[in-house]
């Protein structure tokens, strides 16, 4: 396991009244600063004015280092800033001067994304300094109206393809591939499955939102999502909040399967955007909260 993702530390274990000193591997956590550079559109009243280049801090989020490019792409996709990989002119570690470097843990924690001229950025959505944490994601955007304003893609229309017998095994298939969790026991995972039950991609991070963003960013790069000819499901190792539903909807994925519970707002969002939402998933059972029309007919029906 790369040292960047986990760190070795001493620990004292108490068990059955006995004290033992040993070593442990703990998950790494560092801040990621994302700077967004874009072209401001000229005012209608002054059409001769040249397009101006602008740059602002978009977000600071805590994450496990690694797959930063995919995390950033997934976050921009789920927030409605971009809709396609071609909306990105460049994405790279930001070039900082000495005064800026003093406030950053290391230079690889600060990235800059340059958008193409065709991308129209909603300036009002960038006005506040968005400080986010690995446990809560982008707070302050949790409303159905906010999601509607992001113009999410149409929910995939294919029906009767999700197998109730096989999907219960998908979390275990994901768990078997969680190398970072195996080492540290301290991270979440998000994985993409196709209708045949094949695990296509998996990403891990200390934050459940970050794991999802890394997965969606990788999917965007590989052009796996937003394709009408492919039925996809995302499986996550955690509970489902509204933000996780938002990310799934904005990626054009029709099925979200969770190991944990789902919130009431997550259910309302799933109903509003016709997402198949499943929680408390085990090999023996699961709870389906919306979108049963994607399920294959049960043998008991």
Automatic annotation (TrEMBL):
The answer to whether keyword Transmembrane applies is yes
Q: Where found, per UniProt?
A: Cytoplasm
Keyword line? Cytoplasm, Membrane, Molybdenum cofactor biosynthesis, Transmembrane, Transmembrane helix
Q: Which residues form the signal peptide?
A: none
Q: Where are the transmembrane segments?
A: 249-270
Q: Which domain of life is it from?
A: Bacteria
Which SUPFAM superfamilies would you find in this protein's record? Cytidine deaminase-like
| Pfam families in alphabetical order | FdhD-NarQ (PF02634)
Active site, per annotation:
136 (cysteine persulfide intermediate)
Matching entries from NCBIfam families are given as: fdhD_narQ (TIGR00129)
Which HAMAP family is this protein grouped with?
A: FdhD
Give the similarity note: Belongs to the FdhD family.
What the protein does comes down to:
Required for formate dehydrogenase (FDH) activity. Acts as a sulfur carrier protein that transfers sulfur from IscS to the molybdenum cofactor prior to its insertion into FDH.
> What name is this protein filed under?
Sulfur carrier protein FdhD
Upper classification of the organism: Bacteria, Pseudomonadati, Pseudomonadota, Gammaproteobacteria, Alteromonadales
């Amino acid at each position: 396991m790369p040292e960047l993702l986990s760190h070795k530390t001493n620990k004292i274990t108490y068990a059955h009244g006995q004290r033992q000193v040993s070593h442990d591997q703990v998950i790494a956590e560092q801040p990621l600063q994302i700077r967004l550079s874009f072209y401001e559109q000229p005012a209608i009243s002054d059409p001769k004015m040249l397009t101006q280049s602008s740059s602002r801090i978009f977000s600071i989020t805590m994450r496990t280092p690694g797959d930063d490019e995919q995390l950033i792409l997934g976050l921009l996709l789920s927030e409605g800033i971009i809709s396609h990989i071609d909306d990105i002119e460049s994405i790279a570690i930001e070039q900082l001067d000495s005064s800026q470097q003093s406030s950053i843990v290391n230079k690889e924690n600060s990235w800059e994304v340059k958008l193409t001229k065709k991308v129209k950025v909603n300036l009002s959505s960038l006005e506040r300094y968005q400080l986010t944490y690995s446990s809560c994601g982008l707070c302050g955007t949790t409303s159905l109206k906010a999601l509607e304003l992001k113009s999410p893609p149409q929910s995939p229309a294919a029906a009767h393809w999700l197998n109730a017998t096989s999907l219960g095994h998908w979390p275990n298939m994901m768990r078997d591939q969680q190398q970072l969790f195996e080492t540290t026991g301290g991270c979440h995972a998000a994985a993409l499955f196709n209708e045949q039950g094949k695990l296509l991609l998996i990403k891990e991070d200390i934050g459940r939102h970050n794991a999802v963003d890394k997965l969606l960013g990788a999917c965007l790069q590989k052009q796996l999502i937003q394709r009408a000819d492919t039925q996809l499901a995302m499986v996550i190792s955690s509970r489902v909040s509204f933000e996780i539903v938002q990310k799934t909807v904005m990626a054009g994925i029709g099925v979200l399967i969770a190991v944990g519970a789902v919130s009431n707002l997550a259910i309302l969002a799933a109903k509003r955007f016709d997402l198949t939402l499943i929680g408390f998933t085990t090999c023996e059972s699961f709870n389906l909260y919306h979108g049963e029309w994607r399920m294959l007919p049960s043998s008991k029906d």
